[in-house]
Every structure is written in C-alpha cells, then in structure tokens.
UniProtKB/TrEMBL annotation:
Alphabetical GO biological process terms: cytoplasmic microtubule organization; meiotic cell cycle; microtubule nucleation; mitotic cell cycle; spindle assembly
Gene3D superfamilies: Gamma-tubulin complex, C-terminal domain
Cell compartments where the protein resides: Cytoplasm, Cytoskeleton
Stretches the record annotates as Disordered: 169-188
A GO-annotated cellular component: microtubule
UniProt name for this protein: Spindle pole body component
Length: 862
C-alpha cells in the first residue's frame, strides 16, 4: 500500500475520493446511492485519512505471521486493551480459513500498520478506532464474485463489514467509553486483566497452567496427559489431537528439549554404569554428573513451587485460580528459566558422550580438554566434574606412593605391573608407566610421573627385597603424607607430596644398600678381583693355574679350579685392601671376607675344538637380592667380557715374562761354555729373540698401563663420586652402567671399535705364538748342548726363519693398529698412541703417526 503524495494534481485527488466512495458504497451494499449516510461518510473520511497518512513509512523489518501477531498483542497489552488482544486472536483464526499464508501475512501487516498510525491520534479517537478494528468480523458466506467492485487489497478481498455492525460498533464504543470514564483507572485495568486471563485460558482446549504443569513433567522425562514423547520425531511435544495454537506448540517443544536431553543423559549414564569395564574413575564421573542433576532437581522443585503445582487441589481449576490474581508461572517465564539449565544439560550430555568407551586417565584427559573452553561457566562446570571424577586417581596415587600397592582391576591407573616377574627383576621389569592412562594435566609433568613411579617402586623394593616394611609404616604415618590434600588443579601440592615421599624412601633404601648390604664393598671386590686390579691376587692365580690352563679345555674340572681360586684369594691381600677402603669393623669385615670368597666363582665357556684352558677360563662374581637389581645380568655380562679381555692381556704379559726367564737362563749357560764359540746363526737367533720379545713387551706393558691407569682408575673415581651423590636407586643403577660402559668403550671392546679390537687380539695371539716358539727353541737348545752336529745349525736356521715370520707379521699388525688408533678422536686413545710411538720409531713407515703422536704429546703437556 502506498501513501497519497501531497504533490498530486486536483484531478488525481478527485479521482481517488471517487474511488474511495465507490469502495465504501460497495462494502455497505449502497452502490446506487450518490449521497452517503453519515456512518458511511465517516468511513470515507477514515479511509482518506489512512491513504493520506504516513502509515506505510515504517520499514518492514520482518514479515512473519506469528511475529506480527505477537507484536500486535504486545501493543494492545501495553495499552491495557486485553479484550481487544483476545478478539485479535479470534480474527486471525477466522482469516486463516479464508486467506492463504501470503495474504494472511499482508493483512496482519496492514493491521500492524494501522496500530502504529493509531498511536499518533488523540486518546479518544485512538480508543474508538481500536474498538472498530477489534470488532471487525468476517462473513464467510460472501465471495469475491458477489461484489460489484473487485478490490486488490487483501483485507478488502476477505473482510465484509455490515453497516449495522458498524453502527452497533460505534454505539458500543461510546457506551464503553462513557462506562470506562465513570470507573477509576486502576480498577478498569485490573478487571480487564483478570478478564483477559480467564478468556485466554478458555480460548484453548486446555489452559496454560495445565500446559505449564505438563511441560514441567516433560523436562523431568515424564510423559503427561497432553505432552508426550513422540518416538517418530524423538522429542516431547503436545499431542496432535489437542487444540493448542502453533506458537504455543513451538514454545512447549523448545521447553521440552530439556526433557529430551535429560532422558538421553540418563540413558547414557545407565549405559556407562552397566558396562563391565566401568571402573572407579568412570563411576566417579557418573556420580559427578548425577550430583549436577541433583542441583537440576532442586531447581525443578523451586519451579514447581512457583507454578503452584503443590497447592492445586484440582489442576483443571488452574485457570480460575489464576484469574483470582495468582502470579503463577507462564510458558514464557518457564522458557526463559529453561535457558540456563538447558545449556548445562547440553554440556553434561556432551561430556557423557565423549566419555563413552573411555576409562581411567584417558577419560580425565578428555574432560580436561573441555576446560580450555572460552566460556567461564563451562570451564567451571567441567572443572567441578573433573575434580570429583579424579578423586579415585589421586587416591590410587597416594596408596601407591605410601604403601606400594596397586589395586587396579579395571586398568585405569597410569602405573601398571607385569605378572610372573622374579625378585631379581622387580626393579627393572615389574612396574611400568601406562602412557595411554596418563592424564593430560599431568602428562606435561613428565618428571612428576617418573617420580611417582620411582616412589612406589622404592616402597615395594624395600618391603619385598630388603625386608624393611616396618620403618616405612612408621615414617608414612606423619601428617605430611596421610593428610596432604591431593586433587585436580593441585599439581604443586602433588609435586611436594611426591618429592617428600620419594626422598624419604630413597634415602632409606640407599642407607640399607651401603650399610647393610655393603654395596661399596662389592664394587671394590669387582674392581680388584673381576677387573684384576689386585696385583698379588692375579699373580698368584696365574702361577697356580698356568699348568692347568695349558692343558686342553676338555681336561679342566671346575672344582679343581675353584680350589685354586680360593687359595689364591686367601693368600693375597684382597680382604685387607677392601677393609681399608671401607673402614669397617673387624667383625663385619670377617663376615664380608667370607662372603666375598663365597661369591667368587669360575665360569667355563663352551670350548671349541683344540681349545686350551686359557680360552675357556673366566672369573665370575655372584650377587643376591637386592644387589641383583644394580648388578643385573647384562651388567655382569659386561663385567665378564672385560674380565676375559684383561685375563688374556695378563696372560700375554705373564708368558712374555716367562720367555724372558727362559732366555736369560739360556744366555747364562752359554757364557759358561767359554771354550766354545757361538756360531753366527745361533748368535743371530739370540739377538732376534731378544729384539722380538722387547717389541712385544713394549706393546703389552704400555697397553696394560693404559688399561689400569687411564681407563680403570679414572672410571673408578668417577663411579665413587656418582655413588656418593646418587639420590635414588635409578641413579645408583645408572652410575654402575656408565662405569662399565665407559670401560668397554675405552678398551675398544664395543662393536664400533671392531677393527681395533681385532688388531689387539692378533697382537696378543702373536705373543702366545712367540711363547710357543720359545718353548720349542728351549727344547732344541738343550739338545744342542749335548750334540754339536751340523744338524743343529739347520735347526737354528729354521727357528730363525719362523721367528722372522712372527716378527714381520707382528710389525705389520702393529702398524695397522697404530693407523686405526689415529681415526679415534678421544684423549685417552691419543695418549695410548703417544706411548706406543713415543720416540717416532714408526714415523717413517706411518707418516701421520708422528704427527698424531706429536699432537698427543702437546695436548698432554698442556
């Protein structure tokens, strides 16, 4: 509809007035009359005012049937025209039967524009116009074809106003106006409001109070008489056969979403709790959700009290009770109230859905992710649930740290244990961290998780391996441990608790290992006996076993070797050395000496064909619990590997010393035969024997010095310092592993030094060959003293050629060994290289060797 422009020409204005007169006459059935009655003249003037007004100047923001109806009702209610608002609803219902949706929207919009224009009129004219609009009725028996004048306006197409009705409307408006003027203003408003309430409740098949009660039942997941659960749409809604306007149905449907969420949430909780794998943390989570629902029930009880449901003797009379002036709950108030609980139920349902098929620490990790939500209320809700759900986790942490117990039938805790582990492997293999169950709010504290594992392992180790549970029970009764609050968002408190418990148990374990089980004494025994650091013991053992070990390996008997080992130990000063290092009492050292003798053992390797006793003999040292956790099987295997290598080195040195004795005695006897002159070949052989032996002694003694002082002694001092500074069992184990690992590396026994190790073994094998050669030479020399035949000269030539072959092979391997040492960038190896080529003898054959040696010398000097 467009307004009349003030710039219209007089002809156009006259034509518009004529059209309006024809329209009014056609509506009233007086098409032939030229002079209109006074009532119709008023209608013409009203129509012209509307056409010439600014009624359509307002911008149409949103055209929707329900929205426009609500705006009209609110506008009438603000003007205290309650009956007109009720009449407006009847008009809308009648229009729905005659108009399609588009026409109905346009008609309602036109009425809204009239209401807006009406606000500019005076109070008396505004009241009279409102009465006329509210009493408009539709004549369904008339059709558009019966009208002589076809009008395109939607309202005029469907609404036919009878002239008598207009007269009655005017007279009734005047009566109402005079009657209203005679009453006090407050009384008129009060009576109109009470009348509106009664009429509104009677306008539906059921009253709003009943619908409120039904909606309150629905939000608790309970079906009512009129609001039921519809499985087809999976929602609570008013039954289709009940006469309730569509806006009210939609409002109830939105309110009842909370009931659907409540029902869905209860089903989720029931499924979680009925799951066989539902553990303590999952049950605590369900309990936290139910606690939140308890608050929901309390709010519902307040709403029911506000709705007056507990005071209605007969709910069918709720509308009459409301008419008496009760300020009860309406659907709109209930909808506004539902928003906050609805949001809460949504998030509770989301949390429960996310927790499905998860348990333990993984469940807590999922909940913790929701604490990163930007909404403070959601953060508060999730933190409250997480704080309650994590209680079993922190109870398990406390029980594990203080008692060393794991009660985790559902595998929810992040500390787990393996079954079938012996006491020797309790520390290393029994317990481990189940990474999938570490909560995300603790996963960032990796050191804290390791400390929790360490504290519990220490308690278990003290109880089962050290038999020291009474001290722990007394120590952990202190309030610091039993009353320390632990929970979510208390990581600092947890850290202090774990650190205190771990420090107490670790200090106790370290005290027992050093004082009761003499850990340091066993370390000294390993260094002096297994690593052959006790010189007199090694020499006695070599002297005692040399004859037996020269025999084939198949002729060796372990019992005989053990007897020889025991005699060598008792005849050496090994026990005195250990006692002086420990500064222990005599009685304790006597017991410890006997214990060391009992622990020393002999191990025979699997012999190969033609092997001698030297090839299969190996020293061993046995440990019992709890020291087996430090000296594990792999650690002791590394000790035995080093011991066999050092034993082979000691054997080479021993054999070279033996050959020197043989050579010296033989030379002394030759000088006694002054009457006999030595043959040139014999003198050459004598010199060559001495020269080759000195070459080999040079390598063996310098390498032995390197082993004892550059490797063992330095590593031993580092081990003692680390043992003294160790704070827990892990550091003790790590110190021992680093000690033995460094020795393996410096002795070039690791796989990456395979080439250098092979050269060393070849050089040592050549010393054994040289010793065999010397035995052969000594035998020939004794025969030569008795027989001076020319055949002895040929034998010396053969021996000389064999010796030259050994020397040539030795020189070649030794030069290759020096070249291999140049590739190792380590200070210890450079020092060894300098000692082996200290005078640059091999520089001509190995150009870079002198440079390396010179650099090593400069490095050592600095």
């Amino acid at each position: 509809m467009q307004k009349v422009n003030n710039s219209k020409t007089p002809e156009e204005a006259t034509h518009i007035v004529a059209l309006v007169r024809q329209l009014v006459s056609a509506i009233n059935g007086n098409a032939t009359e030229e002079v209109l009655p006074s009532s119709q003249a008023k209608q013409v003037r009203l129509a012209l005012k509307i056409l010439s007004s600014r009624i359509s100047s307002r911008k149409q923001s949103y055209v929707d049937e329900q929205v426009i109806v609500e705006r009209l009702k609110r506008s009438l209610a603000k003007a205290n025209r309650i009956r007109d608002a009720v009449r407006l609803l009847e008009l809308v219902n009648s229009l729905k039967q005659l108009c399609d949706n588009h026409q109905l929207t346009q008609v309602l919009y036109f009425l809204e524009e009239l209401a807006y224009h009406e606000q500019a009129l005076s109070h008396s004219k505004q009241q009279r116009l409102a009465n006329q609009l509210s009493d408009l009725s539709l004549d369904s028996t008339l059709s558009n074809s019966s009208n002589p004048l076809k009008v395109s306006n939607p309202l005029l197409d469907s609404a036919i106003v009878d002239s008598n009705q207009v007269k009655n409307l005017e007279s009734r408006g005047n009566e109402d106006t005079s009657h209203d003027d005679s009453k006090p203003n407050n009384t008129v408003r009060e009576d109109a409001f009470q009348e509106y309430i009664v009429k509104e409740n009677e306008a539906y098949e059921i009253s709003e109070a009943i619908l409120v009660r039904e909606a309150i039942y629905a939000v608790q997941g309970i079906e009512g008489k009129y609001v039921k659960y519809q499985e087809k749409n999976d929602e609570y809604a008013v039954a289709p056969d009940i006469g309730v306007p569509q806006p009210v149905r939609e409002l109830i449907r939105r309110i009842c979403r909370m009931g659907w969420l409540y029902k869905h949430l209860k089903q989720q909780l029931q499924e979680l709790q009925s799951n066989p794998s539902c553990g303590t943390i999952s049950r605590s989570f369900c309990g936290a959700i139910e606690n939140e629902l308890d608050e929901y029930y309390e709010v519902l009880a307040e709403v029911e009290a506000q709705a007056g449901m507990t005071n209605f003797e007969n709910i069918e009379n709720a509308g009459l009770l409301a008419a008496k002036g009760r300020d009860d709950l309406t659907l709109r108030k209930l909808f506004v109230w539902c928003q906050e609980p609805l949001e809460k139920l949504k998030w509770l349902s989301v949390l429960t859905e996310a927790a499905y098929n998860t348990k333990g620490g993984a469940l807590l990790s999922i909940l913790h992710e929701f604490t990163l939500h930007g909404d403070k209320s959601i953060q508060s809700l999730v933190c409250s649930i997480l704080r309650k759900a994590s209680v079993p986790l922190f109870d398990a942490v406390r029980k594990w740290i203080l008692d060393g117990e794991l009660d985790d039938p559902y595998e929810e805790f992040f500390i787990a244990s393996r079954q079938g582990i012996t006491a020797e492997d309790i520390w290393d293999k029994k317990f481990y961290i189940r990474q999938s169950m570490v909560p995300s709010f603790l996963s960032m504290e990796s050191h804290l998780i390791s400390s929790i594992l360490l504290a519990g392992k220490t308690v278990v180790f003290l109880r089962k391996c050290c038999s020291d549970g009474s001290w722990l029970s007394d120590k952990f009764r202190e309030p610091l441990f039993r009353e320390k609050p632990l929970g979510y968002n208390q990581v600092d408190s947890l850290r202090v608790f774990v650190q205190a418990a771990c420090e107490a148990s670790s200090n106790r374990l370290k005290f027992l290992l050093f004082e009761k089980f003499l850990l340091k004494g066993h370390c000294i025994a390993l260094r002096n006996l297994i690593l052959l650091g006790q010189g007199d013991f090694v020499q006695n053992l070599l002297d005692s076993l040399a004859a037996d070990l020269n025999e084939p390996s198949s002729d060796l008997y372990r019992n005989n070797l053990l007897g020889t080992l025991d005699a060598s130990l008792r005849s050496s000063s090994a026990a005195i050395t250990i006692a002086s290092a420990l500064s222990a009492e005599d009685s304790m050292m006597d017991n410890f000496t006997n214990e060391v003798l009992d622990r020393m053992d002999v191990r025979l390797l699997h012999p190969s064909s033609g092997a001698q006793g030297w090839d299969v003999f190996s020293l061993d040292y046995r440990f019992d619990v709890p020291l087996t956790s430090i000296f594990t099987k792999d650690v002791m295997e590394m000790y035995r590997k080093i011991s066999r290598f050092l034993w082979y080195l000691k054997r080479s040195n021993y054999l070279l010393c033996t050959t020197w004795n043989t050579h010296f005695l033989s030379s002394s006897q030759d000088y006694k035969h002054t009457k006999l002159e030595m043959k040139p070949i014999a003198r050459t052989l004598y010199n060559k024997i001495h020269f080759v032996r000195m070459k080999m002694m040079h390598f063996v003694e310098n390498f032995q010095y390197y082993v004892m002082f550059e490797v063992l002694e330095v590593s031993w001092n580092e081990l003692l310092n680390k043992l003294q500074k160790a704070q827990d069992m892990n550091e003790l184990i790590l110190a021992q592993r680093l000690f033995i690992s460094k020795i393996l590396e410096k002795l070039m026994l690791k796989e990456k030094f395979r080439s250098q190790y092979q050269r060393i073994r070849q050089l040592l094998d050549l010393t054994v060959r040289y010793h065999s050669f010397m035995r052969t030479w000594a035998m020939h020399k004794s025969i030569e003293d008795l027989d001076f035949s020319t055949e002895m000269e040929k034998r010396d030539e053969n021996l000389l050629s064999k010796l030259v072959q050994i020397e040539t092979q030795y020189d070649t391997i030794f030069e290759e060994f020096l070249q291999d040492l140049q590739t190792i960038e380590k200070d210890e190896i450079r020092a060894l290289l300098f000692r082996l080529n200290f005078n640059g003898y091999y520089s001509s054959k190995m150009p870079t060797a002198s440079q390396i040696a010179r650099e090593s010398h400069q490095h050592l000097s600095s």
